[in-house]
Design brief:
44% helix; 293 residues; 7-stranded parallel sheet; 11 helices; Rossmann fold; two-stranded parallel sheet; 11 strands; alpha/beta; 16% strand
């Protein structure tokens, strides 16, 4: 039995579909079952609740031997730190998985070994240490910036011909497509031969700067799209102005500072870390249809 968390999220739903296609027995944890498509209700067991809740996770792991783990983002107005959110969300599940010998495949950040505060990324790395400390069998998918984050920029790309981040314009920003992350997670869930604990660093095949991303986007959508770098202080202030808690805004700012400082280069990668989808291919398959819809 394979347990899937975040089955309606960008990565979780793709993991779920791949695992369902395999014919394995599947159980999902979801707060709102009405958000699940019909084929999931027909082919998977559904446990309603939060995977942070001890009773819910105990029920979901009954008779299971594998679990896909992803911590959803904290609420926009949540006053707590990212580290606290990750640790409080994960603690019960990590202990339950360890006590039952459940193999855990988790989504985390690339960058173990980075010296310094990294906001949301520090929270994810602290989560890894918590899970590893329980002794649970664990494969940590260590990932960089999701290409899909740029879908939030479709409107300014279309209306102003720009997209903006606080990331350094001329520093490479490793990225990955969620479909590649999901494929790697599903492969590990379906492989019953592994044991112990290990990290699995993954990135797309091309580390482009934001300026270079703008060139690829322009080529793909057929109009000029420029990159605008926003000062980190302005980025942080805008988040607060739009209702984010000061803690979340600080965590986001610290994450970008760490990205600009090379956190994704702190963790060793090799040829096997490269995934299939290039940024250009992702733009063609995913961004362009969103841009023209």
């Amino acid at each position: 039995m394979i347990v899937i968390t975040t089955p309606t999220g960008d990565v979780g739903r793709q993991v779920l579909d791949r695992v369902l296609d395999s014919g394995e027995a599947v159980r999902v944890i979801v707060r709102d079952p009405s958000r699940l498509p019909g084929h999931v209700h027909a082919n998977a067991e559904v446990v309603q609740g939060s995977h942070a809740d001890p009773d819910t996770i105990t029920k979901a792991l009954d008779g299971a031997d594998r679990m896909f783990w992803l911590v959803p983002p904290a609420g926009f107005h949540d006053a707590g730190s990212a580290r606290r959110h990750y640790l409080e969300f994960t603690r019960s599940a990590a202990q339950a998985a360890a006590s039952r010998g459940v193999r855990v495949v988790g989504v985390t950040s690339l960058g173990r070994g980075y010296e310094g505060e990294a906001g949301l990324l520090s929270g994810a790395l602290a989560m890894d240490e918590l899970i590893e400390g329980t002794g649970a069998p664990y494969r940590a998918l260590a990932l960089p910036f999701f290409m899909e984050n740029l879908l939030r920029q479709v409107q300014p790309m279309g209306e102003q011909g720009t997209f903006s981040l606080a990331n350094t314009a001329d520093r490479p920003l490793p990225t990955i497509a969620t479909r590649d992350a999901a494929a790697a997670a599903a492969a590990l869930l379906l492989d019953t031969s592994w044991s112990g604990q290990a990290r699995v660093p993954l990135t797309g095949p091309d580390d482009l700067t934001p300026d270079a991303m703008a060139e690829v986007i322009s080529d793909t959508v057929g109009r000029t799209v420029r990159y605008q770098q926003v000062p980190i202080a302005d980025f942080q202030a805008r988040m607060v102005q739009h209702g984010a808690s000061p803690a979340l805004a600080q965590d986001m700012a610290d994450m970008v500072k760490a990205q600009n400082d090379g956190i994704y280069d702190a963790e060793p990668r090799d040829a096997g870390s490269a995934t299939a989808t290039s940024f250009r291919q992702w733009c063609q398959d995913t961004l362009k249809p969103a841009f023209t819809s």
